[in-house]
Design brief:
Blueprint: H1 3-57, H2 64-117, H3 122-153, H4 155-172, H5 177-205, H6 209-212, H7 215-228, E1 234-240, E2 243-244, H8 247-266, E3 273-279, E4 283-290, H9 306-311, H10 313-322, E5 326-331, E6 337-344, E7 350-351
Parallel strand pairs: 1-3
Antiparallel strand pairs: 2-7, 3-4, 4-6, 5-6
Helix pairs in contact: 1-2, 2-3, 3-4, 3-5, 3-8, 4-5
């Protein structure tokens, strides 16, 4: 890692730490406000449920309008309470994630200060800096993995239960059946749609199969998911001997491919994206190419233009170079953006070919 790259990395960590500190203050305030609102809605929901129980006792003599109003009030109360509780869980998960990340940044800066104060030689400092980069990547991915499993076991399961609850209400709610069935059918459809979005969010946040099966199966599943969603066509070509890489390298490759696909589809107006991944005994080589419009990158060695910074290309270069890799960008005419990057493979990678 060059001295300039190291300085840029530390400056980026300091900026992100300051932003996290500001964000945490805002999140704390939002959690307090949301908690108060949840408490208020819990009381309101209890009152609505008590009214429904009272109506049930007098179901034979109660006016139809009162029955309808009571049930509609309970459904609306439960819906709002569920929404606010979901928002509170999201805020609390975000708070935990940001706090953990802030602690990691503080530890990195603390270790860096210690390294600067010590009289170590340059060849001793470089492995230490690399180890810090690896620890950042792994810490971030561990937190993403935790949030992924939390989403899977929490909100996703709650949504499943809500579908069952809607079906029960649909059978029991026999006052103004036509209207009730329409509303509950819409609620059920919305919940199912949200459940599918949650599953996609879990995969994009942290594909659990990345840990279990590795990079290439996860990339294949990622490409298949994009095709199923009806987004721009994407092709994946894998050659060479498939093998497991160090976890932090598999994560980096997957995230960079994700980001390049995002750039091609959102900013490049690409109609197709091609991903080629080649592994040999010494390195992994990845090329991501999207057709469409070109970009004003200027000198691709410096990436100093506003366009390059807007796309986040300097950050991608830093991430690859920190792991002793190389990355290049090409864009001209109507060929869109072509990005090629390589990362070295340590000895002892696990051969997955059969």
């Amino acid at each position: 890692m060059t001295e300039n790259t190291s300085s840029q990395f530390l400056e980026s960590i300091q900026q992100q730490r300051s932003k996290l500190q500001r964000d945490l203050k805002e999140v704390d305030m939002l959690i307090q406000q949301t908690t108060s609102e949840v408490d208020r809605l819990v009381r309101k929901n209890s009152q609505a449920a008590a009214l429904v129980r009272q109506i049930d006792v007098q179901i034979d003599i109660a006016p139809r309008e009162d029955i309808q109003s009571a049930y509609q009030g309970l459904i609306e109360s439960q819906r709002r309470l569920f929404t606010m509780r979901g928002q509170l869980e999201k805020l609390q998960s975000g708070q935990q994630y940001k706090t953990s990340l802030l602690n990691n940044y503080n530890e990195i800066l603390k270790r860096t200060d210690s390294l600067d104060a010590a009289s170590g030689e340059e060849e001793q400092e470089q492995p230490s800096e690399k180890a810090l980069v690896i620890s950042v990547i792994e810490a971030q991915e561990r937190e993403r993995q935790r949030l992924s499993r939390q989403m899977h076991d929490g909100p996703a399961q709650s949504l499943t239960n809500l579908v069952l609850q809607a079906e029960i209400c649909e059978r029991l709610f026999d006052v103004d059946r036509d209207r009730a069935k329409v509303e509950l059918a819409e609620l059920k459809a919305d919940v199912i749609s949200t459940f599918q979005k949650v599953k996609k969010f879990i995969f994009s946040l942290r594909p659990m199969m990345l840990d279990d099966l590795g990079l290439t199966p996860t990339l294949r599943r990622y490409v298949a998911g994009l095709k199923e969603s009806g987004l721009i066509p994407i092709t994946l070509q894998i050659s060479g001997k498939e093998q497991r890489l160090a976890s932090y390298k598999e994560v980096t490759i997957f995230r960079v491919v994700q980001e390049l696909h995002h750039i091609a589809s959102r900013y490049g107006n690409a109609s197709t994206v091609k991903v080629d991944l080649e592994m040999d005994e010494k390195q992994v080589r990845v090329t991501v190419e999207g057709d469409g419009s070109s970009f004003e990158l200027g000198n691709t060695d410096t990436l100093a233009t506003a366009e390059a910074k807007r796309l986040g290309l300097p950050t991608l270069r830093e991430r690859i170079e920190m792991l002793e890799g190389k990355i290049s960008f090409e864009t001209e005419g109507e060929q869109g953006l072509r990005t090629t990057f390589t990362l070295p493979i340590e000895e002892g990678g696990e051969n997955l070919s059969r």
